[in-house]
Write a structure and sequence with these properties.
This protein has four helices and no strands. It is mostly helical and about 90 residues long. The chain folds into two domains: about 1-50, Arc Repressor Mutant, subunit A, CATH 1.10.10; about 55-90. The longest helix is centred in the C-terminal third of the chain and has 36 residues, at about 55-90. It is elongated. About 10% of the residues are buried.
Length: about 90
């Protein structure tokens, strides 16, 4: 069976669904099975997205993408600086 990637909004909705089911008196394991994920996935999601609202999740993802872009830019500039430094010193 292939992996299904859930969007951040779907994850938050599923976490809320488990919260509702457990509030109704169902065991956590049964609620997790009902949303169709494993316990490991549920606890990983809860650790990462627990307590966030869907708009906060969108902002978090945007910031993570921007951070990755900035890291790439810094590493590219650092590499160019090192190349120019070597070329200036004459050690090809």
């Amino acid at each position: 069976m292939g992996k299904k990637r859930h969007t951040a909004e779907e994850i938050v909705a599923k976490l809320r669904q488990v919260g509702v089911l457990t509030a109704q008196g169902r065991p956590v394991a049964e609620a997790i099975r009902q949303i169709g994920v494993t316990e490991v996935t549920y606890y990983r999601w809860r650790n990462e997205y627990g307590g966030l609202k869907s708009d906060q999740v969108k902002r978090l993802k945007e910031l993570e993408m921007e951070n990755a872009r900035l890291r790439r830019a810094v590493s590219d500039l650092t590499l160019e600086k090192l190349i120019l430094k070597e070329a200036a010193s004459g050690s090809f």
